[in-house]
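Subgroup meeting minutes
Present: P.N., E.W., G.H.
Scribe: E.W.

1. P.N. recapped why we're keeping a running log of single-chain structure predictions: easier to compare across weeks, and new members can see raw inputs and outputs side by side.
2. G.H. added today's entry (176 aa).
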Amino acid sequence: MLNIAFPSKARGASRSFPPIGACNSLHETLAERAQRVAAQRLLPKGVIVMCGEGDAVAVEGQRLATQERANFLTVPEEELSVDWLVEHAGEVDVLLVDADYLGDVEDTVDFCLRVRRGCASLPIILISSEIRGDDFTCERMHACDVTLRSSASRIRLENAIRAAFENNAYYLASRS
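Output recorded in log:
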């Protein structure tokens, strides 16, 4: 019979725990983690592709690419094919899609869905002036990884890229 009030001592090998002073403090652990995150490159492959015109997001994207020593490619809609993206997805960090440039909402969503079907591992950031605010959740994950309101700042763009990487990993895991 199991005595719930006074459980018996566990049998087997006892574990030895490190002395209390040997562990890093929470502050030191968080500081070390922050340094590791800061040391990681935001754009490890070194390429951002934008489907759209030169607007504020493109300007900030270019500045961010320069800061990260990466390439920023702006491609007109008619020249950007899903086949090209599929072929080069392994070389591209993130795809920025300017919904205002592509025109109709249905056309934009269709384009994003074609890209998603062709190269699911490519993070997609949809940029639009039609949305109320940034959406870094996985709510629209079948079409894109992040939705960013137009006229984004560099900080918002950096955060969107980080969130797109995380959301894309979640999307890929959810498909398995």
